[in-house]
Amino acid sequence: VTERFAPSPDLSLALDAARKAGALIADRFSKAVVAERKSGGKGEVTQTDRDAETIILDILGSDSAYAILSEEAGGARDSDAGLWVVDPLDGTTNFSRGIPLFAASIALMRGPSVVLGVIYHPLTGDCYAAERGGGCWRNDERLSVSQVADPELAVLYLTHGYPTADRARYGKALSRFAPRSYPRSFGSTAVELSFVAAGMGEGWICSGDELWDFTAGMVLVEEAGGRVSDWHGDAWDGESLYTVITNGVIHDYVIETVRDLQKK
C-alpha cells in the first residue's frame, strides 16, 4: 500500500468533480434555500442538488466513458465496464435547514465491487478518498478506523430509507443499540461513513439507503481497515441496501444485534 496519496486518473477525475461541485454547495449554504418534496415521498431536492449534479456529470462525462448513476438524474445500473455512482449533495435536508452536515459523494463500481470513492465536505474543504489497494486518505493524511471493541463505548450511526418497513426496521435496531451503545443519526450517510473511516465512530447500520448514499463511504472504510457485510454478516453482493460497515472489531456485536431483522 502506498504511503503517500497518489490518485489514479479515475480518482483524480472524481476528486476534481467533487471539489468543483462542493465549491458551489458551500457558496450557497446559509442563503435562502427552497426545498421541494420529491415524488413518491423520497425526501427533498433543491436547485443546488441539481446544479451540483450537473457539474459532476459534465466533468465525469467529458473525461470518462463509464456509465453514470446519479440520485437526481437516474441512469443505468449495469456496472461491469464501470459505473460512476453519484450523490451530488448527500444531506439535502440538513443543507436546506442550515445544518452544516452534508457532502458530495462519488464512487466508481465495476460489477459488484466498489473500486474507488470520494466524499467531499464543502464547508471544511476536507476531501476523503480511497481506491482499492491505495489506502484511505483525508486530504494528504492517511486514515485508519478506530480500534474501539467495547460495545458500551461504540458510537454507531444508524440510517434508513423512506419506505415504512425500512423506518420500522431502523426503529427496532435503534431500540436494541440505545441501551448499550451510543447511537447517532446525522442526516448524511456520506458524512457518517467518512467519520467511521477516520476513526470518529465505530460503525454504520443501513436499513434501506440507496447505492449513491453509501458506495463511496464503503470503500473508504474498507481501505481504512474496516469491514462490510449485510445484516447477516455475509459479504455485500453489490446490491443489498441492508448494509453494516464497521471498524471490524465491533462488527460481530453489530451483526448479533440486528441479524434477525433482515429477512432472507
TrEMBL record:
Keyword Acyltransferase assigned: no
GO molecular function: inositol monophosphate 1-phosphatase activity; metal ion binding
PROSITE patterns noted in UniProt: IMP_1
A Pfam cross-reference name: Inositol_P
One of the GO BP terms on file: inositol metabolic process
Matches recorded under PANTHER family: INOSITOL MONOPHOSPHATASE, INOSITOL-1-MONOPHOSPHATASE-RELATED
Lineage summary: unclassified sequences, metagenomes, ecological metagenomes
Alphabetic keyword roster: Hydrolase, Magnesium, Metal-binding
Record has Magnesium as a keyword: yes
Gene3D superfamilies xrefs: 3.40.190.80, Fructose-1,6-Bisphosphatase, subunit A, domain 1 (3.30.540.10)
Name of the featured protein: Inositol-1-monophosphatase
UniProt cross-references to InterPro entries, sorted A to Z: Inositol_monoP_metal-BS (IPR020583), Inositol_monophosphatase-like (IPR000760)
